[in-house]
Amino acid sequence: MQFLYPAFLFGLLALAVPVIVHLFYFRKFKTIYFTNVRFLKELKQETSARQKLKNLLVLLMRALAIAAMVFAFAQPFIPKGNVIKHGLKSVSIFIDNSYSMNATDKDLSLFEKAKFKAKELINGYKEEDNFQVLTNDFEGKHQRLMSKEDALAAIDELKTSPAVRNISDIMKRQQQVLNTSDRSLKIAYILSDFQKNISDFSNKPDSLIEYNLIQLRAITESNVSIDSCWFEIPVQMANQVNPLVVKVHNYSDEPAENVTLTLNYDGQQKPVGNLNIAANASITDTVHVAINKTGWHQAELVITDYPIQFDDHYYFTFNVAEQIDVLCINEDLPNRYLEAAFKGISYFRLNSVNNKTIDYSKLGNNKLIILNELKSISSGLAQELVNYMKNGGNVLIFPAENADLTSYNAYFNSIQAHQLQAFSKTERKVASINTNDFVFSDVYENAKANLKLPATTGSFPIQEFAGKAVVKLLTNRDGSTYLAKYKVEKGNQYLCFAPLDQQYNDLVNSAEVFIPMLYKMSISTTKASKIAYTLDKDAYIESDMNTADKSDKVFRLENDKTSIIPEQKTIQSHLVMHVNNLIKEAGFYTLVDDNKKKLQDFAFNFNRKESDLLCLTKDEIKAAVSGNVKLLDINQDTNLSTMVGEKELGIILWKWFVVLALIFLALESLIIRFWKV
Questions:
Q1: What is the mean pLDDT of residues 104-132?
Q2: pTM of the predicted model, to two decimals?
Q3: Within 13 Å and on the Cβ side, how many CA atoms surround 583?
Q4: Fewer CB atoms inside 10 A, N or C side of the chain?
């Protein structure tokens, strides 16, 4: 047995006090006269012996009580091992405040339990030690060492957060702060549920830091989450039913039955139905959203699930434009069939311009750009078209019969498309339609019906070879391509290998093909507006509006609770904003300018990374860690303050000596009170 403060053992000299009191204590006897003193000698001898025994027992109890208190102040301990850690310490404590910690264990959330355990850890150290309190938020105020009192106060202020960090990132952040300390003893604790999707122990931590893992487990590990949703059609349209696909996941070993799905839209709550989801599986369901007006819309999908509720809501926004703009660039006069086709669809607005009067700054405002039999494609136009498609635009080309193949092929080469060969006056007939592609999907109930397919008397052949990412939309009987699609980053290049002129091509007479083709190409952008963003994942958001004339303005994101000014810059006339860590709560946010004019709605959702509550077992954690990283084997009743003391010194005995002192004092009182002499 060793003592933490051996100087207190000098207090054992106080044992002389009760001995001295006992030796010099003389009881005064009262004289009583008896007429018969025959039995006095025998009675006096018996009483004197009992009194001496009682006094000796009282003396012993007092001496033992004093000795026990002296030992308690000296803080005795039995060392565990040969190494005893002395000196001041720097201690980092990470408290997992992610939403998975809202799971309960005996009516107490894991997060509240973690805060309580963290306080026990801090109380186990000395007043002179310093501490870091760290959470998933990685806030600046937590990137420093503080006093014991400040650390306890900081824990009281903690709240759950949507932020999620991997264990390796947490260890690195603890290492950064602890390495700023000049103290040789550096200790780190991580209090978490250790979900599998965040528990990576691949990186080796600093060997000079002792890492201790404390796992907190919920009674059950089950959760149902709305994973995501998306529209089947990239562009939403008014006065139509727009199919919305919803994905719901069951993170449980038991099937989830009768999960109610609700859509909140335009101020109304619309029940969608009940879902039955198999164990550890997901399902998709289609919700039909009826849109009655144009402009920006806010909608919310809701399920009911307890106790993990952060992923039971999914917010999304979408815009319904009043019209879809299409630009047709002509060599000479506009094509009357194109004009008639778009006039027949009131939702579309066609703007026809000559190739010499193109306003390049407004190309991005159009969903589809048609090159109608241009004799050549200038290098300037080619570059603008490539940039337009990279940002999600669609281009349809009908080459002229006398086209300058040098300029055309230079353009096609820049987008990795096939090269055109010399114009060939050969009759060809379209034989098949690719209904698997978006352009012709869901257009025909029976694609093999007696449709009037286009025929040509002249077209541009190409040399077919591998390596070109092409999708054949319409194919001739001889196997040659009539209409093709090339992917250009976020946009599409559509190419008809025949002129639109009726002299060589009767496409305009095949209304079953011509009209739906133009319609679907106009809305086929792969850069549909993002209907929702994820907190702590999507650091940048992009506005749909053209900011070419608004570069000097300051834009804000606002809702009823907050207003932020994100870092913002203009890229190719689009506003891009950096919002990482600025938005903390899921919900709707409106983009406004200096004049408070509402420009666009955005929806933010919590990261679904925490939805899967499956955690590592203790055996899995022990197998994954080694060296200076250890899992502390504790249970519900383990007092971490005591554990810290025992881990630093060994088996601490001062509390037992305090108990013994109380017992000895109690025995003294019982002897004095009930021992009748």
A1: 90
A2: 0.70
A3: 33
A4: N
